[in-house]
Structures are given as structure tokens and as C-alpha cells.
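Quick board copy: two proteins, each given as sequence then C-alpha cells.
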Amino acid sequence: MSLRLPGRGSSVALLGWWALCSWAVLACGEVSKKGESSVTSQPSGGAAASGSSGDGARPAFSAGSGGVGGEVLSAATAGRGGNTAAAGAYGLAGGGSGLTGGGHFTGGEGEGGAESIPPAPQPYRALAVSVTLMHFCVLLDDHNIKCWGDNLYGQLGQENAVWGHVSEPQKLVNLGAGRTVQSVSVGRHASCALLDNGAVKCWGFAPQVGLNAADAVGDEPGEMGDNLPALDLGAGRTAKQLSLGSITGCAVLDDGNVRCWDLTLHDTFAVKGPPIVELAAGNFPIARFADGTLGQADVSERVTLPQGAHALQLAGEERQVCAVTDDGSVTCSESFWPPPALDTSSLVSIALYNGYGFCTLDAAGKVKCPADLRNTEVWAVPGAQMDPYGLIEVNLGAPAVALSGGGDHFLCALLVGGTVKCFGYPGYIDSYLVDGQLLPVNLGSH
């Protein structure tokens, strides 16, 4: 289901890399790629800044490359049509440059005898966040990942299993020596990562990790890291995009075809024609092509576009997928659910939750949700009224650049500056509430 986030073809008239630097949120340095464990520290909030697109025009839902940098953004597409929100297409990362995670210093003594002073720990910043029914994973600025939430099947990648909710991100997920992560996507009880070498690794609930495992994967010592096998994508094949749904996961391969898995791997459909720019996996896989058409493997639960309309964005959660179209409408896979009426004039994306709910992100960085999203008195802007579409603005304290849903009455927003705030169902966000105010998720330091 996954907000890497995005992929190519995501909205491009957004908060650019130049804006991030000019707002002095962070230095525009080289992305750190070390894999040490983090040292916990208090998170810092995102910088408050105007998030308007500048020219007042409607965001461009084009099939072009969003943001800066090619392959990094391509990887960021992982799950963008599902429940992953990513910074890549919004200018927070790309082409090897991005949010700095602090400098690297060489230890020991130089020729002059002066000893190098190690840097102070720097707060992690998020490049993407992926949300599902009961757990979350975040892609960090050094291209490692952390997860939190339900861990009954080891889906947090900590080589243990815990009954109940783990309220804060855990230590870095070990995916093998020297490996870094391009994107992350989470499903109902499993998590998958697209690695820097194009391999895909999954862990958690056995029927969703594609390894034909008899039991959960990642819930016992010795099952992660180099011991966790990559999925067999075919001889010489690598993955470019990634998305998990309720039971299945799917990847767009380097030859443009799509391969999916549940308990085992299987080919779903071969692609002929325009390249895939976005992938979503709800109950079934669906792909958005560069020309705005859709590729679908399941004929019983299809997203049928209005005549003459083209898909601009996909939004998925574990039970369904919706498409925002260029005629200003939203069409969904479950015919018994009336598609929402939305103001699409400044719409950047929508995110689904609880099967039938949705929230919106606009070009100014504002997130709005229906009043029936739980815990309204905490997340809503004080005194805010519903707009004509029944939505209320979320009090995030800074513009959002991406939005991820897929959970049971909760969502997470990726803010300018790389902080993450989650809101909705109180049982899952209690640790981020202080005196009724939403705090950033504690991502730790490195």
C-alpha cells in the first residue's frame, strides 16, 4: 500500500530543493550513508515556512521526473501510489545530495599531532515514511530505516516479536553489510525495502514476504542482515519501484515488467507500452503509466477511469486503490464506496485510511482531513471550520511535503525540514502528544 514515497510522475510544482536551502532548514550537503546504530535524542521541529508553489498555478501532475536527481527519485517511487510518502519528488533529496545528517570526521591523529574532534550527534531527518494498518517505517537521511508500531511478526526488523504497540522507532534495521535503502514500503504485517543494489528484502508475516517461509521472518535472532535473503526477481533483474498491499507486494523491474509476491513469488503482468511511473498494491496491483492510463492484473476489482480522463496520482491502502484524474474527479476500486468530492484546483495528493476515509495535501503544504478522523480535538487547527468538502486543516506547525495513510484512523505527514508528525487514532500516537500538541516522531540521532 505504500508515501515513498513517490515516484516519477508525482507532483512537481512543489517545494523545491532551492526552497529548502533558502529557508535555511538544513545545509544542502552530501547525504550520509553510514550504518551505525543511532543515539537517541530529542527531535527538533520542522521549520515554519511558507509552502506555496510560487506561481499560484495548479500543481503539475505530470509523468515527468519530480524534483532533483533521476535514480534517487525513481527509487523514491516505491509505494508512492500506496501508503508511502516521500520527500524525493518534493525536492528534499535527489541525485546524491539531500538532507545532511552531520559531517564525517576521521579519528586518530594527523601528522601535526592534532586529534580530530568527533561531531556532536545530529538529529535524523526523514526522506520518506510508510504507514499501514498497525506499523510504520521511515527512510532516514543516511538511507537507513527505522520502524515502530505493531511487532507481532517481527515486521519492525529487530529480530524479536512483541505483543502490543512499540511507540517509538527502534534501532536501525540491519539489511546487510554495506547495504543502504532506496525506499521502504509496509503492508499489513510485513515490511520491504528496495536496496541500493536494486535487490528487495522483506520481513515479517510469512505469507507476505515472498520467501516461502513456514513462519515469520525477522522475529528471531540471526534472521536479519546478511542472513535475510533477497527476493528472487528473476535472472539479472533488479527492482526500480516497490509497493505492499494487504497480502501482496509488487515491484517494477528494470525491464519495465511487474513481479509480485505473497507467500511465494509470481509474475503478475508484463508491461507493453509507456513506462510505469507509479505502482500501488491494495488487494491487487495497479500501475499508472506515463500516458495516464492504468495497468491492472485483477479484472474483478478494477479502477475504471472516466471516459477521456487520465490518472494523475494513485493512492492505496490495504483494501483499495483510488486514482485522482485530470478531470478533477477521484475514482476508486470499490464500487460501493462513493468517491469523495474534492477541490482539485490545488490538490497535490490524497491519502487513504481505514478503508473509506481520506485526507488531502495541497500545494501550500496544508493537510486536511474529515471530522470523523479520530481525535479531532488534538490534530485540528484550533478554531478551524470545515471547508465545503467537509475537511478540517491539520495543525502540523510547518508545511507538509508528503502524506502517508493506510492505517486504522491514523496518518503521518512528512514536513519541510525532514520531521514526521502522525495524527489520528490516539492509541497509536500517544507518545507524540504533549499538552494536546503534536510533536515530531523521535527519529533519534546519528
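And the next:
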Amino acid sequence: MGILFRLILMTDFNPQVVENYLANHEEILEWVTQHDNLFTRRVEGTKRAHRANPGGPTSKFSSIFNDDMPQEFKDMVLKTIPDDRKWLSQIVINKYEPGDYLVKHTDAAGGYYKFKLIWLTDGTPHFCWYDADDNQHLIQEKKGAMFKMDIGLCHAVTEIGPNEPAKYSLCLIYR
């Protein structure tokens, strides 16, 4: 049985939005927007380019990676999150500006066992997930809400429109 087929069989297709997961999202967003210089562009031809698979399409967005964050900021991120830090290995902030998007992918290929996505902004929905029949489901992003999903769940961020404000999200990665 192929890996993708096994992944589909094992994937939990019942993701949930957990509202009010992060109480200090405004404080975090303010810090992030004041430190825009820490973002790394993740586009074709860069070291940090994001692809669903080798040779596949490349996403277009920016990230602040764990190693580029001062400890004070990491402490700020974690101060209101429910205690689930034992295996937390990375904190990443993603920014999607007009024209940016995240290609359809799963997080299972990333070598970690749990991934939490927390929205720092809301507005027009762009985050989507795909069910077992490959149907797209757009989710209304909510500030401070966490999207609880299986790492085998296919998901993407659709292209941000030309007149839309930037979208920001926080990713917690557990190895």
C-alpha cells in the first residue's frame, strides 16, 4: 500500500476551529509588524522556498523562523497558550501579502507529529483544507483561534487579493 494511500486512510478529516486559544494575539501581531525586517521571503529560488514535493509548485509568502526570534518574543507567544509545550520545537510566524499563497500540501512530510495553526488576523477567508474526496473547504479565520488538524490533512492558503491587507498566522511545531 502506498504512503499517500495509507496517509489518507489514517487522516482525521474532522478539523476544528478552537476559538480564543491565544489571548494575546494583538500584542503578538503588534510586535511582528514592528519587526517586519525579520521576515524571510519563501519564493522560488530561495533557500527557504516551500513546496509540497520536490519539483512541485512553490508557495509564495514570508516567515519569521524560530532561530530569528528573540527569547522575549517566544516567551510572549507562549504566555497565554494552554500548557502544551513539552515537545514544542519551533515557533514560526507566516505573513501573506497580496499575491501570496501556500500550495496545497500536508504537514506529515515535515518530520513532526503535531502542528498547530493560530490566526493573528481575520478577514476574507483564504485558509482551506481538503477532504478525502479532494473537496476544498474554506475556513473563516478568527483572531486568536487555533485550527486543530491532523498532520495528514491537505491544506492550502488561496492567493491574497490585490487590495486585501496582509494576513498573519502563528505556527507551533512539535517534533
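Board note added afterward: Residues 1-9 have pLDDT under 50 and may be disordered.
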